[in-house]
Amino acid sequence: MRIGLFGGSFDPPHEGHALASHLALTRLRLDRVWWLVSPGNPLKNTSGLPSLAARMAAAREVARDPRIVVTNVEAQIGARYTADTLRFLHRRCPGVRFVWIMGADNLLQFHRWRRWEEILRTTPIAVIDRPGATLRAACAKAALRFPAARLNEQAAPLLASARPPAFVYLHGPRDPSSSTALRRKAGRP
């Protein structure tokens, strides 16, 4: 089983999340993508964050694909950080090939994540191109720290089986939707 893990607050979920998931499913030849709707984000102000149940319900409406599974696994296991979630999943599901999915905009600040190098050393990463981040993502601290880990985009189907550290940039249709912009439009922080 090859499963992509797409984590975030999904506040709110939008078509860009679904588009990125479909791109990953197709190009990485994944069986499933799990949306890991987080209880909160340690790097963001979570005041006014809708309930986990409300965000999960909204995410299910956007996902609309049986291969995309909306989960609250981080809340269930009490994980606050991605590295802890990945450690749990690798132990719990030893036969599964996991791939972490992130937008190129997130790669730019990935070095701020707790134990980000551990994440890179334990789980292959697919970086999905995002408007405004295409050229800057190649200069992200994580990309510069692990230059030999980058696979050619044509090798994307091999990523789930690659030995970490390994990452690939995926280019394809892009959606300009942004949770930050959608919150601002709704008058929320």
Automatic annotation (TrEMBL):
Keyword field: ATP-binding, NAD, Nucleotide-binding, Nucleotidyltransferase, Pyridine nucleotide biosynthesis, Transferase
InterPro entries assigned to the protein according to its UniProt record, in alphabetical order: Cyt_trans-like, NadD/NMNAT, Rossmann-like_a/b/a_fold
GO molecular function: ATP binding; nicotinate-nucleotide adenylyltransferase activity
Transport is among the record's keywords: no
Biological processes, Gene Ontology terms: NAD+ biosynthetic process
TM segment ranges: none
Domain of life: Bacteria
Catalytic activity entry: nicotinate beta-D-ribonucleotide + ATP + H(+) = deamido-NAD(+) + diphosphate
Pfam hit, one: CTP_transf_like
Gene3D superfamilies listed in its UniProt record: HUPs
Domain Cytidyltransferase-like: 5-184
EC main group: transferase
Functional pathway: Cofactor biosynthesis; NAD(+) biosynthesis; deamido-NAD(+) from nicotinate D-ribonucleotide: step 1/1
Enzyme Commission number(s) from the entry: 2.7.7.18
Classification via NCBIfam families: nicotinate (nicotinamide) nucleotide adenylyltransferase, PRK00071.2-2, PRK00071.2-4
UniProt similarity note: Belongs to the NadD family.
UniProt function note: Catalyzes the reversible adenylation of nicotinate mononucleotide (NaMN) to nicotinic acid adenine dinucleotide (NaAD).
Stated name of the protein: Probable nicotinate-nucleotide adenylyltransferase
Taxonomic lineage from the root: Bacteria, Pseudomonadati, Pseudomonadota, Alphaproteobacteria, Hyphomicrobiales
